[in-house]
Amino acid sequence: MIIQKGFKKVVVGTLDPHDKVAGKGVALLKEAGIEVVVGILENECNELNKRFFTFHRKQRPYIILKWAETSDGFIAPETKNKQKPVWITNPYSRQVSHQLRAQENAILVGAKTVIDDNPSLTCRDWSGNNPTRVILDSRNSITSDYQVMDDAAPTLKLELSSSDTLEILNSLYQNDIQSVIIEGGTTTIQSFIDAGLWDEAYQFMGTDVLFHQGLQAPVLSGDYSMLSRKMIANDVLKTYRKK
After folding, report:
1. For domain 60-242, is the CATH number 3.30.1490.100?
2. Domain parsing of the chain, residue ranges
3. Going by DSSP bridges, is the β-strand pair 200-206/74-77 parallel, antiparallel, or unpaired?
4. What separation in angstroms does the CA of 222 have from each of 27, 69, 189, 198, 243?
5. What is the pLDDT of residues 97-142, one digit of tens each?
6. pLDDT 10s digits, 141-190
7. What is the CA radius of gyration of the chain?
8. What range(s) does the Bacterial bifunctional deaminase-reductase C-terminal domain occupy (predicted)?
9. pTM of this prediction?
10. Rounded-to-integer distance, Cα 139 and Cα 120, Å
């Protein structure tokens, strides 16, 4: 179409990494005598397409870690009241959390999180599509009566443990999942941190909540930087990116 319309110059932000494309369009334009400028706003284009590019360049989904912790560093109390959920963050932070879910293809948790919390893992507090729910269930312990097995969203059960990080990512890649948000629990999130397999992390902190003891929050390691820090009412949200 561009060649047919007689354009003299084309500006390209960044090249498509897909092996079926990979600069072939640019070559055709140049062969037709059209001036092609590549790399304009390249960083911005890479940011916009980070999920797609990661999927094709690294053959794995773009990986986002997300958790909420108390101001003394716990994600859950030592004992839980099964009749009443324990909220670390305020309703506004939970709404932001659901907004983040709606932006990704899949959400992943371990079987223990499902058994302990019976979460729905949907975007009920935000508009948008519910992500595919991925459950690590090496012992096949998640039955149909859990909320993650309802018809609110697709569910993919993997008979793998949280330490099987490469196998997990390969399964997601084979299922054409370009991005995944990993929400828990600590063991699952920490497995990906320790393997160096993550791209971004969202750390919500409820500044008014103290557990004193319980399940420790994940700890980031390796080469990473903080992208932002902002207040959501009385909560703190820190965003990190792996270098």
Report:
1. no
2. 2-48, 60-242
3. unpaired
4. 39, 20, 14, 11, 9
5. 999 999 999 999 999 999 999 999 999 999 999 999 999 999 999 9
6. 999 999 999 999 999 999 999 999 999 999 999 999 999 999 999 999 99
7. 21
8. 61-202
9. 0.93
10. 20
